Amino acid sequence: MKTLLRSAILGLAGATLMLMIYAGPASAQTASATFQVQATVNKNCLVTASDLVFGTYDPSSGTDLDVNTTISVRCTKDTPFTVALNAGVTGGATLAQRRMTNGTDFMNYNLYTAAARTTIFGDGNGGTATVGGTGAGLGALQAQSVDVFGRIPAGQTTLSIGSYAETMITATVTY
Questions:
Q1: Going edge to edge, which strands form the sheet with 105-112?
Q2: Taking a C-beta distance cutoff of 8 angstroms, is the pair 70, 150 a contact?
Q3: How many CB atoms sit inside 10 A of residue 49's CB?
Q4: Are 76 and 169 in contact (CB under 8 A)?
Q5: Element containing residue 2 per DSSP (H, E)
Q6: Would you say 76 and 43 are in contact if contact means Cβ atoms under 8 Å apart?
Q7: From residue 78, how far is each of 47, 138, 172 by CA, in Å?
Q8: pLDDT tens, 84-111?
Q9: Residue 81 and residue 160: Cα distance in Å, rounded?
Q10: Does the global pTM surpass 0.85?
Q11: What is the pLDDT of residues 16-28, one digit of tens each?
């Protein structure tokens, strides 16, 4: 009986070993799925402006005093934009004739879109113009410069001495 049991065990062990040898390694099964990745970039613009400093105006010189400054606009790539300027906050100022004040005295000046100073930089109304562009990106290296050309016209001979200022020209970027 021992021999029979021993033969049965050896036979079973041999059959199992043969199955393992001939069956090869177990094959793994897989399943897969795909998915999308999405994001949306909204339009955005950032704007900064440098002060426009005329320096000293000489009422007796008979010549206009011209200076310029820059507005820096950064917009998301391919975003069209326009830059508009208001008249300022000095009483009596308009887009056609901006004013600086020194107490109760006023000095006339204006802002223009080009060095020729023929087109007033305003909000697009009343014969004024805006300046447009297309965004190149929001990084500092993609900033687009919009030049602003200022002029104090000659002939303002009744000005009091002192410092004249307009405290708030607002550059508005529409995109």
A1: 45-49, 65-75, 144-152, 105-112, 98-102
A2: no
A3: 17
A4: no
A5: helix 2-23
A6: yes
A7: 16, 11, 19
A8: 999 999 999 999 999 999 999 999 999 9
A9: 41
A10: no
A11: 544 445 555 678 9
Are the beta carbons of 166 and 99 closer than 8 angstroms?
Answer: yes
110 burial (CB, 10 Å; 0-12 / 13-18 / 19+) is: buried
For residues 168, 169, 170, 171, the Cα torsion angle rounded to the nearest 10 degrees is -150
- Is residue 43 within 8 A of residue 79, CB to CB? The reply is yes
Rounded-to-integer distance, Cα 123 and Cα 111, Å: 12
Contact 149, 68 (CB under 8 A): yes
- Secondary structure class of 66 (helix, strand, coil): strand
Query: What Å distances lie between residue 10 and 4, 23, 67, CA to CA?
Result: 10, 19, 106
Interatomic CA distance for residues 126 and 46, integer angstroms = 27
What token pair was written down for 68?
């310029």
